[in-house]
Amino acid sequence: MNFPEKEYDFVIVRAGSARCVLANRLSEVKHKKILLIEAGIEEPDVAEVSAFVFLLTGSNIDGCIDRIQPEQHACQSRKNRECMMARGKIVKENQRYYSQGGYQSVQRFPYIDIITDILLNAWQELGYELVDVNANNQLGVMSQQTTSANGTHQSTNKAFIRPIRRKRKNLTIKTESYVTKLFVNNKTKCVTGVEYTSGNNRTQLNRIFAKKKEVILSAGSINSPKILMLSGIGLREELEKYGIQVISNLSVKESPGSCNNDWFCNWTKFYFYPRRFFNDTEESFEIGVKPFSYYNVISVRPLLLSTKSRGFILLNGSDPLWGAPLIYPRYFISNPDLDVLVGNMKIALKLFDTESSKKYDFTSIDKALPACKEFEFGERCLSATVILTNAARFAEVLSFGLLQPSERYYECRL
C-alpha cells in the first residue's frame, strides 16, 4: 500500500513509553498511516542493562541534563541552589492484573540481595504488609518489579515497536528528528502538522502534515510546553517577547499540581538505592560512584505521588528555539507537600528501631548538609536519611506509606 510521503493520519511527537504503545496500537489499523518522531537515536544495546541507567546520564541517549532555576525551599545544599534534571532521549505475575501473552514482560530480577530481605522485614515490623503494588492494594511494601525479560531491561520500544517495525508498512519512525513547532489552523485552532529538523542539520526545516486525523504531542513535561509556546500557544506577553505569533493566549507554561484531594496528597513512594558515602556530606550527594556494587550506604528517598505545588516553564531568553528551557519547579510552595515528605522521612527513621535493623547494626548518618547545620538532625532538619551497614550490598525495595493527619512535621527545608 503506497502513501503520499509527507502526509499521515497520525503524527506522534516523541517515542517515550506511552507513545511506543500508542504507535503499536494505531498501526494495527492497516489503512492508517502513522509517523513516530523521536529526537533521540535508536535504542542501543547498553540500555538493556538496568544498572547502567545512571551511567547514561549526559550521554547521547539522554535528552540533556537541565539545571533548574534556583529554588527558595529546595536544593538548599546544592551549588547555587540548583538541582539537576535529566531527560531521556531514545526510542524507548498476578493473573488478575497482568495480562498474559502481551508485548511487555513484568518480572523481578533473579538475584535478591540479603539487604532486600532485611528491609522488607523491617517494614513489616512497622506494620506494613507485603503487597503487590501493581495489583489492588498499594499500601504496603514489596521487592521491586521491573519491565524486564530474563534479567534485561525491556523498554516499550523493545516490547511494542521492534517486533512490528519491519512488518507494518504503515508505520514510519524518524529518529534524531527534533520537532520545533506545530502548525495550527488559525480559524479552526486545530493542529495540522509539525515542523522538524533531522540529524545535525538545524537550518533545514521539514514539514509533515496530519491532514486526516491528528497530531499527538507527548514530548514530556518539559518539552511539551516548550513546543507549544514556540507554536504560538501560551501567555501572550511571554510569546511576544520573542516575536512569536500568538495563536492562543493560554497559560500552558504552568505545570498544574495534580493533587486535589487531601487524603490522596498523603501518598508517598519510598525508594531505596545505593550510594557511595564520603566524609564530606555535600560531596556524597554531588558525586555518583559507579558501579553500585561498591557502595557503602543505602539512601532512603520518599517521593510524593501527587503534589499541590505548581511550577512553570519559560523559553530560554538567549535562544528560545535551541536553548534549554528555564525550569521553575517551585517545590514546597503549597501545603501539605513539605509536611507529608518530612513526615515520611520521620517514618523512615523508625526503621532503625526495628529488630531487623538492630540485628545488622544499621545506623543513620546524621552529618548535616550545609543548609541544615544550625538545626538538630531529625528534629528540624532532614536532608536525607541514609542507612549505613558494614556489608556492601544492594537493596531493591519499594514501599508505599500513608502519613496520618496527626503525624505532620514542620520547619524543614530539604
Automatic annotation (TrEMBL):
Pfam families: GMC_oxred_N
Location of the Glucose-methanol-choline oxidoreductase N-terminal domain: 220-234
MF annotations from Gene Ontology: flavin adenine dinucleotide binding; oxidoreductase activity, acting on CH-OH group of donors
InterPro entries, A to Z: FAD/NAD-bd_sf, GMC_OxRdtase, GMC_OxRdtase_N
UniProt similarity note: Belongs to the GMC oxidoreductase family.
UniProt-recorded name of the protein: Glucose-methanol-choline oxidoreductase N-terminal domain-containing protein
Organism annotation: Melipona bicolor
Taxonomic placement: Eukaryota, Metazoa, Ecdysozoa, Arthropoda, Hexapoda
